[in-house]
Amino acid sequence: MKIGVPTEVSSGETRVAATPETVKKLRAAGLIVAIESRAGLGSHFTDDAYRDAGAEITDATGALGADIVFKIHKPTFGEIRCLRRGAVLISLLDMCHDDGTFDALAGQDVDSFALEMIPRLSRAQTMDVLSSQSNIAGYRAVLEAARLYGRFFPMMMTSAGSAKPARVYVLGAGVAGLQAIATARRLGAQVWAYDVRPEVKEQVLSLGAKFVEFDLGESGSGTGGYAKQLSAETQRHEQRLLTEELKKADIIISTAQIPCRPAPILITEETVQGMPEGAVIIDLAAGSGGNCPLTIADEIVTRHGVILCGYTNFPALMPSDASNFYARNVHNFLMLLLERADGAHRVKDYFADEITSMTLVTHQGKVRFETTKNAKKVKVN
Predict the structure, then answer these.
(1) 226 in catalytic set
(2) In whole angstroms, how large is the CA radius of gyration of the chain?
């Protein structure tokens, strides 16, 4: 059985779905691995490193024509046409935006798995690409804030005088937010955090940050550990309360997102106008509309004297480690998917395990998921 890893063609993407480390593991398991030439260069993995690990170096057609294909971003329609009929695709598939990709995969008779659909189970943690990449995003977002901010993060005392520590607010205490809190604290900043889910307060406090609490009259706790969308009236009340609180911030790291819905507006233009000159906002929700309406996706802009960063792919700024983490997640998922019989590998019954069943998007020429305007749901087969 052959595993194929093509070069990611999305603009600005530097990661790769397999590394020399995971290639060695795949080869040790008896699998053939074909890597597109130069696929790992953006992550500082050379073709020679892959050859030394036991991989074949091929072109895009060879990688996409394998029995099982690893990717990071959903394939283009051109890539889908290169996939072998009956092949297996393991990738992020952007489940919230169906642009015809799922029908195209089904039409090519490809069994595809969406890694963002991996359930939050203890035994699935080693396959959870969203968590591994969000951890990196939260860390790198704070470093970007430190680069853009014209002052110190920690308190500094010198013979020339002293500088106060930066006041950092983190909005959203999920995986990225908690990592941002920890990183900002390590850099010596004073940190506050806000989240609509009251149960995360203990985690915030354990990292040495202060927890901002408001009486919203409604809980924001959703299913699977995610936040849910608040009612329109509660959102307006939340904005009013946050506006005055966030004007105190030197730096805001904003991570609040709701699966398959536009990001909630937490940082109003009035807030930005009231922040100190030279303050920084890192809007990790820029890809889904932004937590601030002034954010522009993939740009750094200055509005009312405040610097707003709307990068949508922070893991790509740390490509080596991001690729290592992602590749390990994919390897672990594949090991769950395969079994060995009569000296050869074969895929297991997808529906015998809830992890593979819940992530299976296309199967036997049919799409198992349908998308609504703002959400996703499983079709009943």
Answers:
(1) yes
(2) 22
